[in-house]
Amino acid sequence: MEHVKTKKLVDLSMTTQFGLRPDPNDMYSSRSVGPRWASEQKQSRALSTIDMDENIKASLVADIQNFLEPSRPQWYANRGIPYRRGFLFHGPPGTGKTSFAFALAGHLKRSLFSASMNEFQSEADMKRLFAFPGRGDILLLEDIDSAGIKREAMKQEKRQTPAHDGLEGQSQQTGISLSGLLNAVDQSIHEGVILIMTTNSPESLDKALIRPGRIDQQYLFGNVDQAVAKSVFTRMYQDDTAPEGQRISPAIEQLATKFAAQIPHGHVTPAEIQAFLTVCADADTAVRDVGQWVKDVVEAKRAGRNIVGAEGFHMGEGDSSTAVDDDDGEKYVECSEWSDESSKGSDV
């Protein structure tokens, strides 16, 4: 694993990130004020390390940079439009929704306020905390569907379903209603704040929550295509000691092409590929073993299993995939037999 051991930290600026912390008086006093924002200085993550469709990435960054231009508040005011910008990032887990938001904050040198919806104990807490970010800050609401705020049709079905006892029932009680969330978004968030919501289940959300004016743009963060797979590979095996622009050698470029050719479009996430490459001894091993790994991952997903392979994937096992010769006489696996089941990340 030399590529892991020898990597040096990328020279990045620090970003102020706020997360929710419980009130220390919660357990000892009736005067608890609920959760509060706590700041932490973290090293920013470079946007170049976020593996996603480059056109989507560029579009998102340009959109927000335009929103933050000094002339924009007056432009909005002259047209009677509230000065705000809202985004919905949706897609499977591990596709970079949260990572992109964190990297974006570092790139723009803005503070990031991040919370999951199930961390808010009441609507009063939510309104109070939503009012804290200032102009130019980013408010990231992760897993917006996790609070149990569903489409009205789903809520009607739930009313007809008997309540369950125990933890399952408790997890559905967040104290947050749809109307309370809408009021907090509309009335508590200051103008100039960039609102980002993430969800794995966009169709479960009520349309009122994501209508234009609250959510201006929706972006799908999907499973990888071969271009993104190649990007992950070159990022993991680049030579960090080389000058900028020379970190990807011709040999790594060639191996990246072979590696990406074995990744079926729309079946695995960037996070899954990154995890696989992290434990590979070197780039050649990754190219050799990825075919079997892909088959195991896809088979596990189709079967609904959490464990990949019979007992988990082991490096160095024989690859049962069909190999073909490349121009150099080496063997690698192509994925022409895979069907395209999901689209790559795109603006919708």
From TrEMBL:
Please list where the region (Disordered) is annotated: 153-172, 311-348
Keywords associated with the record: ATP-binding, Hydrolase, Nucleotide-binding
**Which ranges carry the AAA+ ATPase domain?**
83-225
Q: Show the ranges annotated as biased composition (Basic and acidic residues).
A: 153-167
InterPro entries to which the protein is assigned, alphabetical: AAA+_ATPase, AAA_lid_BCS1, ATPase_AAA_core, ATPase_AAA_CS, Mitochondrial_chaperone_BCS1, P-loop_NTPase
Please give the SUPFAM superfamilies that the UniProt record associates with this protein. P-loop containing nucleoside triphosphate hydrolases
Q: Which GO terms describe its molecular function?
A: ATP binding; ATP hydrolysis activity
Give the family this protein belongs to, as stated in its UniProt record. Answer: Belongs to the AAA ATPase family. BCS1 subfamily.
- Protein name as catalogued: P-loop containing nucleoside triphosphate hydrolase protein
What species is this protein from? Answer: Massariosphaeria phaeospora
Q: What is the lineage of its organism?
A: Eukaryota, Fungi, Dikarya, Ascomycota, Pezizomycotina
